[in-house]
Every structure is written in C-alpha cells, then in structure tokens.
Specification:
This protein is of the alpha/beta class. It has one domain. It is built from 13 helices and nine strands. It has helices spanning 45-48, 71-74, 82-94, 104-111, 142-151, 166-176, 179-197, 218-224, 259-262, 264-291, 302-311, 313-318, 323-326; strands at 10-18, 27-36, 54-55, 66-67, 154-164, 203-209, 229-235, 239-246, 249-256. Strands 5-2-1-6-9-8-7 form a seven-stranded mixed β-sheet, with helices on both faces. It has a two-stranded parallel sheet with strand order 3-4. β1 (10-18) and β2 form a beta hairpin. α3 (82-94) packs across α5 (142-151). The longest helix has 28 residues, at 264-291. It is globular. It starts with 9 loop residues before the first strand and ends with a helix. Residues 1-7 have low confidence and may be disordered.
C-alpha cells in the first residue's frame, strides 16, 4: 500500500485511467505519488531521472532504459507486456521495503485503493494469473531508479489503484447518468484518499489528463471538496487549473490535454492502469478461450467486442451468464 508520510513535504500526484472506452473488461484508474523535499517542484521528471535512464516513448529512447509516458505508445493489443511492465514494476520496487509482488493479487494487496472491490463473483476473473514479471527477466531497473530518485531528492511512495469492474461500472453509470462523471468521481476519490494519508503535506499538486473532453471542472471539484476555498486559475482547451485551500493547506488540481505526454507522474499512472487492466484481460480471455478453444482474444473495444459477443453467444447461454454482469452499458 502507499505509505503515509511522517513530515511536512510537498506532494506531486499523477492520475490517469485505462479502459474508459471499451465495453468489456474493467475501467482502471491509478495514481502515482511523489514526495519532493527541500527543493523546487521539478518541471520535468524525465530530466531528473535521466541517469537511469528514464525515457519518453518517442522512438529515440535508449533500449537499456525505462520508458515512461503515453501507455498507448508503449503497449498495444497483443504486444508483449515487457516495456510496460518494466516501468511499472521498477517504480513499484523503488517504493517498497519488502519483497516485490509476484502476482496480480499481491500487487493490488500493496497498491489498491481502500475502495477496491475484488471481482470475486465474476468467473472470468477467477482463474490463476501469470507470475509477475510476465516479461523477460532482468527488465526492472529499480536499483538504478532508487539512486536516481535519491539524487534528485524525490521519493516515490507508490501507486494507488482503483479497478472498477463491470457490475459496479453499470450500477454507477446508471445512477449518475454518464461514465465521464464516474471517471471524475473515482479520480477525486483517489485524491481524497491520498490527502488523508499525507496530512502533513501543506502543498499538494494533483495532475490529471483531461477527462471526457471536458474543459470546466470547478463545480465537480467544489462538490468533491466542499470544505475548501476555491480559486480558478485557468480554464482552457489545453489546460484547466484550480487552487483549493483548507486549514492552511493548498491543493492545486491541474487537468491537462495529453497530460501523460507532458508529465511523467501522469504517464506512469496511465501505464499502471493499463498494466493492471491487461492482467485482468488475460484472465478474461483465458476463461473464455478455455470454454471455446480457438476463440480470438479481445481487448474489449466496441467493434471487436461485438465480434466476441456474437462468437460467445451460445456459450454464454449454455453457462447461464448474465450479460448485465459482463457487458458495460456505456
């Protein structure tokens, strides 16, 4: 789990999702938690960690380094998980005092939000998953990363991960009316949880990717943080920034288009979300493939989901599966 800090410091948190668009599989929202001590807030975390090296996924990265950024550029469907996993597990290891998690359950046991609800009633997630790491041995580079973080006077406290599985997704979306509001609610929930865990931090910066094409977040932030003073610093297509204050504490929320390309904490959060979702999808596809040999795996996006649902229709009827538990309503 994310550790609680014990002294006054400044916090930089990146929040991003994976699985917002698909109609099969979970939505996963993750936060990355960095503490900055005795120095100005870094404007470019990649430069701070260049000795590892930590690189952007721009096609020129050092093959020996860790690639952190837009998860869609790092991993695509049916690709090997290696580059995605190396970044996520290296940062995970850099935050831990004990052994590395070797299963998805162990990873979530360390890093899941307190609001995480395991998918126990859903048989397509119940099978055994792969041992972590899935990719080639030796990819994670946490020893070099730990040193680079120390040299930059940064501390990585870990991830905070919130998977939302199909039944909860459908219940929440039907209750509030749209999935964009659900995504904001889950993201704000992670922010509140981290503010509670790091109470001594008097200055906190929360970085988000733009959500659902929205440019104006003020009313939702006021609803999520009702006891805070509120200042709109900027609202534009590219970037919306809000400064909230409560009991002498200043919390800045910044929503930025392509935030995962501009800010390493956001890119790393997107990678963690993608990694966790892909591990659940591997179980999902193994379950259905076991019952229907030769079935092509799916990533859950709309067009391929329709193919998958057509090919498994008879199987789902024979297994008496409830589609309301399987297929997301939006």
């Amino acid at each position: 789990m994310v550790q609680e800090d014990t002294k006054s410091s400044r916090l930089v948190v990146g929040i991003d999702e994976a699985g917002y668009g698909p109609v099969l599989g979970p939505l996963v929202v993750s936060a990355t938690v960095f503490e900055v001590s005795d120095r100005p807030l870094p404007s470019d975390f990649w430069s701070e960690l260049r000795s590892v090296p930590v690189c952007r996924p721009d096609g020129t990265e050092d093959s020996r380094g860790l690639v952190v950024g837009d998860s869609k550029k790092i991993y695509q469907c049916r690709d090997d998980l290696g580059r995605l996993e190396a970044g996520v597990l290296s940062f995970a290891a850099a935050s831990l005092d004990g052994p590395m998690p070797d299963t998805l359950e162990a990873f979530l046991g360390r890093f899941a939000s307190e609001h995480y609800q395991p998918p126990r009633p859903l048989p397509w997630y119940a099978g055994p998953g792969p041992t972590l790491p899935c990719g080639p041995p030796g990819l994670p580079r946490w020893t070099a990363l730990e040193k680079a973080l120390r040299d930059a006077r940064l501390r990585f406290h870990g991830f905070l991960v919130r998977p939302v599985f199909e039944p909860e997704f459908n219940t929440q979306v039907r209750s509030i009316g749209n999935k964009a509001q659900l995504l904001f609610n889950v993201s704000a929930g992670l922010s509140r949880e981290l503010l509670g865990r790091h109470r001594s931090c008097q200055e906190c910066l929360f970085l988000y990717d733009k959500q659902g094409g929205r440019d104006f977040y003020g009313p939702m932030l006021l609803n999520a943080f009702p006891d805070s003073g509120f200042l709109i610093e900027k609202e534009s297509r590219a970037r919306s920034v809000y400064r909230l204050s409560s009991a002498g504490r200043t919390v800045c929320h910044c929503f930025e288009m392509k935030g995962d390309e501009h800010h390493l904490p956001v890119g790393l959060a997107a990678m963690c979300s993608k990694y966790v979702r892909e591990l659940f999808l591997r179980r999902f596809n193994l379950f259905w493939g076991h019952h229907l040999p030769g079935l092509r795996p799916t990533a859950g996006y709309y067009a391929d989901a329709q193919r998958f649902l057509a090919e498994t229709e008879a199987l789902r009827r024979s297994l008496e599966m409830d589609d309301a538990q399987l297929v997301r309503c939006r």
